[in-house]
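call fold(seq) -> tokens
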Amino acid sequence: MPPAPDDNTLRAAAIHRLYTLEKSEQLTRTRIIGVADAFGVDPRTVDRWLANARANNGIYQPTNRSSFTLTPHMLDAVTRWRGNATAAWRELRSEGHPVPSLPTFHRATNRALTPGMRAGLRSGETARRRFDVSGERDRHHRNHAWETDHVEASVKVLVEGHVRKPWITFFVDCATSAICGLAITPQRPSREAVLVAIRDAVLIDEHHGPFGGIPTYVRVDGGKEFLCAAVKEALGVLGTEIIALPPFTPEGKGNVEAVNGAILKTLFAGLPGYTHAPTLRGGKPVDPDQPLLPFEEFVRLVLAWVHRWNHENTPRSLKGQTPRQAWDADPALIDTVTAEDLHTYTLERHGKPLTINNGGIRWRRRNYIADWMHGRVGEKVNLRYLPHHDHRVELYDPQTGRHLGAAVMTGQATRQQAISLKRARTREADRLRAQLRKAEKSRNTRYAAVTSPTPPVPLDVMPEEQALEHLRALDGFDLAAEALPDLIQLPEPDGEWTLPLHPNQRPTHSKDQP
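ret:
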């Protein structure tokens, strides 16, 4: 669609029409009043416009009013004074530069700098962005796109006696504004928190609720924990495409930013230890001895708030529906993955296979052991681990990818794990002992006891029927050897029959007889 013409263009077209009518002697006062009403001016103003067209051969050429324009040196002065036009005007005047009156200088400054630029000069880029205009994406269907981000809780909590400000990692569905998963950490999140949040967001079961599945796209900011190799591999295996937005562009992921702002106002503001609470003179807190929440209680409150957001909150964009209602009303199919496969995908993989030795698996100068390793010394395994959780690793067959089991760090195994390890070692030794005894027993021949001087009879001699069955199984059974020709007597042959000759008897012919 072509752009609409400005007022000067429309004015020139209207005046040219009046000029044409005037030349043909068809111009009336009513037509002039109609043009004046259309532009919201007095009819005498239209008369002046028409006079301008007569002086320029029927073409209306408005005379631009001369105005003062800031020079580059004046703009530099305004910038140095952080957008303060009055201070810049005084400096220029004191230096002897020709400057107009202060109101004229202000008007020139407003024409040269937009409100966003003036706010940026005063308070920086964050203030300038408040004057930016951003559009709105299509919502599509559930699991078409997710948005993720970290938010620092504006609440101080107790973590093992230390005061910390937790962080929350959210995964939000763009179509329904549902919070599909999250991860809470007492410190600034790393790739470990992102992997845990992915696992929590994708799974659908009685513990994780109905929200989840495999998204088509995930929008992230430029944080290194979102763009690390482990997260890219985990989402790549699921077939999810990562869309990396430019840094510091909250307008690019408005859904998760709305969640961040909502939890700040509707949860954090009412908790003890809120860092943005009103203070007394000198910045002193109103109640310095206010008891802080333990980390476990903070997590419980956040999970309860997420449940209310998904089941009770009605965002304006959903037109009166809750995220749960919008999710259930969406007919789009949900792609899922089993918990076992997801557990594998969301673990970071060590590069090359490792060898099981007598001390278990050696990784990062530590040994990892498990009860299932007994008897497997020398075998190769692939190792996967959750970042910053070095106490436990998962091991897989390098050929088939089958999960072999978990292994724990030596020295950090619990008492139950140590007992299981000892029992597994005992079972492996008992199994070997039983196998050796069976082999020895089958090698030594045992004989039956006798009471008279007879040859020894082995106890493992097979009966005749069993021996025949064994020969048949080995294709050693011969029917001719088993035949019994004398069991039934055959009748005497008839005299007219020709009897077979004995091999040593010479045949007699009729010509040899006398």
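The mean pLDDT is 83.
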